[in-house]
Amino acid sequence: MVESSMFSSKGFTRGQVFLASGDDYQAAGAVLAGIPFDATASFRPGARRGPQAIRAGSEVLEEYSPILQRDLGDLPFYDAGDLDLVPGRVEENLARMETAAAGIFQDGKLPIFLGGEHLVSYPLIRAAHRFFPGLAVLHFDAHADLRDDYLGEKLSHATVMRRVTEVVGPGNLFQFGIRSGTWGEFAYGQEETNFFMDTITSPLEKLLPELSRRPLYISIDIDVVDPAFAPGTGTPEPGGCTPQEILHAIHLLREARVVAFDLVEVCPPWDHEEITAILAAKIVREALLAWAR
Predict the structure, then answer these.
(1) What's the structural domain count of the chain?
(2) pLDDT exceeds cutoff 70 at 44
C-alpha cells in the first residue's frame, strides 16, 4: 500500500523561485526547499537570508551545464519556497525541518535544501536516515563542527556534525576540506570519522568505488571555498578550495546514489557584489543536473 504524501506546501512561503523551476510538485523529480534559519550563528548573523539570495543569484546563470551536458529546462523540479519558522524557537524549528524533509522523502523526490546555518543539516539528516538504511554523510566544510557543545549548547552550527555522528555513526561521516577546529575536534575526527584535512578531490576519487554503492547525503558549507571566492559567509576561514574544486567534487559524484543535498552558510549581508550567492546558485544548478532524475 502506497502511503499518501506527507509534504505540505502550507508550511512554506513561495516567492522568487530558482532558475527554471516548474510549478508542479507532483511532476517534479527534485524539490528545492529554503531553510531560513540562523539562530545559533556564532560570528556573523544573516544566513537566514541565504535561500532568497541564492535564488536571486541563479538569474545570472544559463540553464545549461556544459560539463554535465544537461539543461534545467529539461529537468522537472519544483522550488517549494522557504519553510515557515518561528523566531527564537530552536527545537520547534528543527522539528519542523525534519517533518518537511520526511514529507519530501516519503514522496520519493530528491530534496535540495538551501540554508541557513549549518545546524539545519541535523534534522534533515535525521529524516534521511529514517528512509535510507546505510546512509553515509559527505560533509564539505572549512570547520570540523565536531564540538560536543558550544558555550554549553548541544545544538549549534559548531556541533552539528557531532550530533550527526549520533544519528548515522561516526564511521559513516566523511569530512572533506576541514582546516579549522579545536584540538579536541581534530582528535575526534581523525580517530572516529573519515577525516580529510584541507583536501577534497583526491580522497573523494579514492572513495568513489565504496561510496557509489551507498545512499549519500551531501552537505556543503560554502565556507569550504576560500573566502577570496566566497566572502559572504558567517565564519570565513582563509585557505580553502577554489570554486572549480567544489564543482569538480559534484561532478565526480554524478553517478552516485545521492538522496539529499544541502548548501548552507551563505550570508548575504557580507556578500560583496553577490559573488557568494552566485557561486552557490551554480553549485545548486550542477547538483540538480548531476543528481536529479
Answers:
(1) 1
(2) yes
